[in-house]
Amino acid sequence: MTPRLLIIEDDRALGEMLAMHFEDLDFAVTHAERAQAGLDQLRQGRFDLVLLDQQLPDGLGSELIGPLLEIDPQLPILMMTGKHDLELAIAAIQRGAADFVHKPIKTDELTQAVQRLLREREALSQTSDSPPAGSSEDEAPRDLIGRSNAMLDVSKAIARSARTQATVLITGESGTGKE
Q1: Is 98 exposed, middle or buried (0-12, 13-18, 19+ CB in 10 A)?
Q2: pLDDT one-digit tens code per residue, 68-89
Q3: How many C-beta atoms surround the C-beta of residue 59 within 10 A?
Q4: Calpha distance 81→61 (Å, rounded)
């Protein structure tokens, strides 16, 4: 079955480039340039994944995550932003985004992330009808030091595991900041 992808991106050139890239990979792609248009598209049809820009003319992508998940609670949302901000990445994942990538977009890495999320969605749909347990929104966010890609990966892993009941083992040398 052809995967259906919704791209919500206000940069027309980037949106078209991403659409062509994924169409070449046999995706059925719909592109919306505004948050409201993206919501309308999702209400009209079923999609397997959403690529969501953070800065949209009519709102922030991170604020659109909740309304998108109200329509389809199992929908993987992959956030995209030009701002390299760990707190934004963590907040987006805590709100329900499945992953977070920075611009400029590297299509090979984006493709791998999209394929991984689609595999996870397929596995989830085969094993359970309920979404993973949510994290408590009452917890105070913790600031992490570091802005590298490695720290972004750590932050995303923390946010994803916080939504589950999984036990996590953190290892490292004394004094490396495991707390």
Answers
A1: buried
A2: 999 999 999 999 988 777 788 8
A3: 14
A4: 9
CB atoms within 10 A of CB 18: 23
Residue 36 near residue 58 (C-beta atoms within 8 A): yes
| pLDDT at residue number 124 | 77
* Contact indicator for 137, 95 with CB cutoff of 8 Å: no
pLDDT band at 60 (very low <50, low <70, confident <90, very high): very high
Closest CA to 47 of 72, 22, 24, 67: 72
Q: pLDDT tens digits for 98-117?
A: 998 888 999 999 999 999 99
Question: Contact, 61 vs 69, CB < 8 A?
Answer: no
Task: Tell me whether residue 77 is exposed, middle or buried, using C-beta atoms within 10 angstroms of its C-beta: 0 to 12, 13 to 18, 19 or more.
Answer: buried
Round to whole Å and give the CA distance between 38 and 24: 22
Question: Is the whole model's pTM more than 0.70, yes or no?
Answer: yes
How many residues belong to the chain? 179
Short-list 89, 79, 76, CA closest to 150: 89
